[in-house]
């Protein structure tokens, strides 16, 4: 089945309040990972309430406590993306029940949820977003073992995107272009030297482009602008995809002119966590216990401390956009 046909069957017609969503968070998850989704709902997903509107301007202020109602924001929504094709009746019913109580599942009826289908899963999700989220500005993609400071990500997007030129963030980033006329944003922690896997879980049998993957933002968490969402959704049937959805995103966007590619050391999205620093925006490869510990630390410190104790397990790098990709990341 082609991408367009499948995207039309992803879910029931989107509610009209979806029209107000400017920031969509897509969390790729699996049918059996309800516990992981519930932890996100109970922790970092609540931080959307720290963004508020004053005089038509979106501002950040820590507004979260152990008690009290978490305010909802109609311009930010977290969606958990799950493929449902081929599921047992019991699992399907569990997902339906979960969606009734949470109202945040994006169920892909024509996709079997598996690692080999991750890139297709992302394609279908972007097609759905392009069709249903009419006010979308930016899409934040992460995994269900990622902890996000979604409030601070939206704060920076509101203040600096797509050009990302402000001195406040210069110490964290390197970027491909310094233009003030960017047509879009691709923001995360980039790699341009990764060798192509020829066997194992991540093998890419159909890869033929070069000896390394094209520069891409690691999939534990990255942000793309609506212009990129629209481009991929419109051209989905013509775009090759690979086992890794983040590698596929790098390929899909490689030829796009005017896209601001921003490497940010506050994204801890490598295959193994680099440790914990209070300024991190994304931490990948986190357990349920890790999630609750970071949430507790943030609540106890009124949003100031992500980590109980800051620790560096490995060193970050600044991506060098002025050399060949194989030399990018020293």
From TrEMBL:
GO terms for biological process: glycosaminoglycan biosynthetic process; protein O-linked glycosylation. InterPro entries: Glyco_trans_31 (IPR002659). Pfam families: Galactosyl_T. It comes from the Eukaryota. It is found in: Golgi apparatus membrane. Its EC number is 2.4.1.-. Its main location: Golgi. GO terms for molecular function: galactosylxylosylprotein 3-beta-galactosyltransferase activity. It is a single-pass type II membrane protein. GO terms for cellular component: Golgi membrane. Gene3D superfamilies: 3.90.550.50. Keywords: Glycosyltransferase, Golgi apparatus, Membrane, Signal-anchor, Transferase, Transmembrane, Transmembrane helix. Belongs to the glycosyltransferase 31 family. This is Hexosyltransferase. It comes from Pieris brassicae.
């Amino acid at each position: 089945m082609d991408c367009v046909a499948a995207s039309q069957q992803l879910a029931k017609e989107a509610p009209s309040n979806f029209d107000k969503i400017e920031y969509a968070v897509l969390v790729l998850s699996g049918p059996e990972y309800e516990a992981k989704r519930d932890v996100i709902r109970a922790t970092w997903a609540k931080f959307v309430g720290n963004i508020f509107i004053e005089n038509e301007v979106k501002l950040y202020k820590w507004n979260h406590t152990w008690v009290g109602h978490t305010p909802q924001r109609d311009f930010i929504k977290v969606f958990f993306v799950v493929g449902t094709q081929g599921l047992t009746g019991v699992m399907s019913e569990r997902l339906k029940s979960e969606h009734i109580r949470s109202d945040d599942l994006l169920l892909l009826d024509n996709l079997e949820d598996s690692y080999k289908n991750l890139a297709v899963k992302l394609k279908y999700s972007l097609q759905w977003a392009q069709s249903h989220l009419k006010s979308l500005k930016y899409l934040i993609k992460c995994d269900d073992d990622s902890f996000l400071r979604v409030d601070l990500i939206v704060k920076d997007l509101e203040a600096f995107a797509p050009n990302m030129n402000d001195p406040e963030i210069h110490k964290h980033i390197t970027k491909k272009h310094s233009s003030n006329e960017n047509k879009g944003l691709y923001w995360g922690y980039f790699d341009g030297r990764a060798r192509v896997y020829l066997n194992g879980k991540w093998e890419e049998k159909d890869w033929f482009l070069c000896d390394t993957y094209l520069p891409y933002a690691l999939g534990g968490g990255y942000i793309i602008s609506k212009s990129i969402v629209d481009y991929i959704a419109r051209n989905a049937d013509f775009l090759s995809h690979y086992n890794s959805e983040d590698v596929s995103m790098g390929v899909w966007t490689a030829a796009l002119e005017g896209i601001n590619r921003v490497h940010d050391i506050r994204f801890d999205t490598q295959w193994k966590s680099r440790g914990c620093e209070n300024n991190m925006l994304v931490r990948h490869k986190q357990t349920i216990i890790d999630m609750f510990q970071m949430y507790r630390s943030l609540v106890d410190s009124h949003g100031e401390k992500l980590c109980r104790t800051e620790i560096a397990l490995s060193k970050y790098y600044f991506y060098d956009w002025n050399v060949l990709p194989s030399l990018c990341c020293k």
